[in-house]
Design a protein that fits this description.
about 180 residues, alpha+beta, Aminopeptidase, seven-stranded mixed beta sheet
Amino acid sequence: MTPMISTLRLRPFDLHDIEAFTEAVNDSLDTLLPWMSWAHQDYQPHEAESWIRFTHLQRALKEAEEFAIVDAENRLLGGAGFRFAKKPGEFCALGYWVRRDAQCQGVATQAVKLLLDFGFARPDVQTIELLAVENNYASRRVAEKSGGRFIDYRYGVIILDSGPVNAAIYHFQRPCLQ
């Protein structure tokens, strides 16, 4: 049985993460390439820097919060993001990726829990959505283990390099106070 990574936290990306982010992407291509259209062979530090600077802009515009998933030693284990609804009737959404050598250790499930806590700390957020490619069974398991309720499939809301695909839609509802 693979050990669980017991202590992790989410923190904003900073420019000191460029090297670790680049390394994590390049070391994880076999598990990122099927699902993440931004990942590619020979991912470069300037691309990581551009992404990190973009996350700062998203935060300043209050469009999204993107976080580094780090362990107790501040080792970058992946990324986790929360997108705010832009207009009434839209849902906030979350997403994540985990570096290959930290997969199957509970990292994604813990990161989703932290993202849900972050999202539901906002009183206006009632429902948070998670989209996973239909045959990305690992991400779908994380959604289900985290308490997500499967809603339906929708074609075309996720577009991979190969084109539009079916997405499994999961919803998380604000916990009721007892």
